Automatic annotation (TrEMBL):
UniProt keyword list: Hydrolase, Metal-binding
Highest taxon in the source lineage: Bacteria
Residue stretches making up the Peptidase M20 dimerisation domain: 201-301
Keyword Metal-binding (UniProt): yes
Protein's UniProt name: M20 family metallopeptidase
Keyword Metal-binding listed: yes
Length: 405
């Protein structure tokens, strides 16, 4: 292996290399968008994985391909890819391990790519997944390709993680994401930038709960007093839980599903609530969890009991001092590429949340600028492609060697 490049490539050279690759980027993006790769279209996702795997191998990555078992309902996702490339600067000498994460699946059904193919409207690209996340996935690959060409290997390890099921909450790949993130020094999310160009420095976490309300059945006309109405208790709980909104900054509580009863002439013996909580910090998720349990302990109807189950937890990607330091380096790199960026927080979740949950500082939104995700109007601003790729490459070189900052 060659000696480490202790000085990052100049911003001007990185931007020049990125501009020279713009035409190839658009050609490759058209190929990727032409592949239907909905989360449960395993064949399509694997076609994208084949393409990404070949590209990673060409730039010197050792690639592990991970296949997942079917979901309980029998549906199957595609494979995940974990590409690794060792650098020339070990951790003991200041080198750092960086994981780049993007996803290969989209929200669209098979047939969408043919019905709504890739097209350029001036400098704006359209097509299913063009922004979320094929544009960002390709930007990450292109940045790594540039660094390989330059021999910029002043890092301990680069890891490229491509997942097949982000759009459905990463149920199959979650354990792989978390295990891959362990031991990393930094995480870079390849989702596309916000519409105004901002990077994402924070994402809310999400906790899902099920409340099972158990009452007592009785004849509603003859002896209603012998019953304990679970539907009434569920109504009280819905009001109480919705009232938690506004108690804490950046916290939302939504009772999204209420089910109760089977017949109008029976005092309702059982009800169910499904609740989603979104919060910017783990501490706030804990506070809301305690508040939900407190409400469940006092359902407001004698004879009714309530069981609280936390069904899922996607940890928040918190705005931390470490991620702010990363953002400072990103902003410096952006200015060198001729752009200015801000830091945004969002309520949407992604694989970056899981990396952050493993204790790794993360920046997301490092792909080109795009928008209207999950809609037929999805777009990508191709004029931002060279600058964003150069920004990403410069950020990797800055983070890879602790001695450079």
């Amino acid at each position: 292996m060659s000696a480490p490049t202790r000085r990052p490539a100049s911003p001007e050279r990185l931007l020049g290399l990125a501009r020279a690759r713009r035409s190839r980027y658009l050609h490759d993006l058209e190929q990727l968008v032409a592949i239907d790769s909905g989360s449960y279209s395993a064949t399509g996702v694997n076609a994208v994985a084949d393409w990404v795997e070949r590209r990673l191998e060409l730039i010197g990555f050792d690639v592990e391909r991970v296949r997942f078992p079917p979901a309980p309902d029998g549906r199957r996702t595609g494979d995940a890819l974990v590409g690794r490339r060792r650098g020339a600067l070990p951790e003991s000498a200041g080198g750092r391990r960086i994981v780049l994460a993007g996803h290969m699946d989209t929200v669209f059904e098979d047939g969408t790519a043919a019905a709504r193919p890739f097209r350029l409207d001036g400098s704006t690209a359209h097509g299913p997944g063009v922004s979320d996340d094929k544009g960002g996935l390709l930007a990450g690959l292109t940045a790594l390709e540039m660094l390989g060409e330059l021999g910029a290997d002043a890092y301990d390890e680069l890891v490229f993680l491509a997942t097949p099921d982000e759009e459905i909450g990463s149920p199959a790949s979650r354990a792989l994401i978390e295990s891959t993130a362990k031991g990393m020094h930094y995480g870079l999310g390849l989702e596309c930038a916000r519409e105004n160009g901002d990077l994402v420095i924070a994402r809310k976490g999400v906790a899902d709960f099920r409340l099972t309300v158990t009452g007592r059945a009785a004849h509603a006309g003859i002896e209603p007093e012998r019953g304990a109405n679970a539907a009434l208790a569920a109504a009280h709980l819905t009001v109480a839980l919705q009232a938690l909104n506004g108690h804490w900054d950046d916290v939302t509580v939504n009772v999204g599903v209420v089910r109760a009863g089977t017949r109008a002439n029976i005092v309702c013996p059982q009800a169910e609530l499904r609740i989603e909580v979104r919060a910017a910090t783990t501490a706030d998720i804990r506070r809301v969890t305690r508040a939900i349990q407190e409400a469940a302990d006092h359902p407001g109807v004698p004879g009714v009991t309530v069981e609280v189950e936390q069904l899922d937890l996607c940890p928040p990607m918190e705005d931390t001092p470490a991620s702010r330091r990363m953002f400072g380096l990103a902003r410096r790199a952006a200015r060198s590429a001729g752009i200015d960026i801000g830091a945004a927080a969002t309520g949407g979740v992604g694989d970056a949340n899981l990396i952050a949950g493993a204790g790794v500082p993360v920046l997301d939104g490092l792909g080109p600028v795009g928008g209207a995700d999950h809609t037929p109007q999805e777009w990508l601003d191709t004029t931002t492609v060279p600058q964003r790729i150069a920004l990403l490459a410069a950020l990797i070189t800055s983070l890879g060697d602790i001695g450079t900052h």
